[in-house]
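Fig. S4 source data, part A: sequence.
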Amino acid sequence: MRKRVLFPTYNDDFFGRNSLSSFFSDGADYSVPAVNIKENDKNFEIEVAAPGLNKADFKVNVEKNVLTVSSEKEVNKETEADNFMRKEFGYNSFSRSFSIPETVDMEKIKASHKNGILTIELPKQEEAKLKHKHEIKIS
């Protein structure tokens, strides 16, 4: 998801890289990782796609039936050549929150990280698993 700018980019061809819209923009570029949410008979599963982040970069918290996934990462780059040194630094962060259904067993929530994907399993309580599904006839 990117923050929208005030004007479209049709002027880029004439003025160069987004010059008019960047004049009216605050320069911020907002993004959050993509998320998949799945449900089956046993649990809910949330997958957060965050390539380049390690499991130590994430924080996963539950408070008042709200699951929050967040990350803060500082990026530093340093280049030395003949007569100059170039240093670049940046800071990336995001936070996403999800309402947890009452049917989730809060004590058994688990998270794992593999290949740039954070997976959070939210197991259902036993009584929620027992509810059977049936089709309702429309009259």
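Fig. S4 source data, part B ends here. The radius of gyration is 22 Å.
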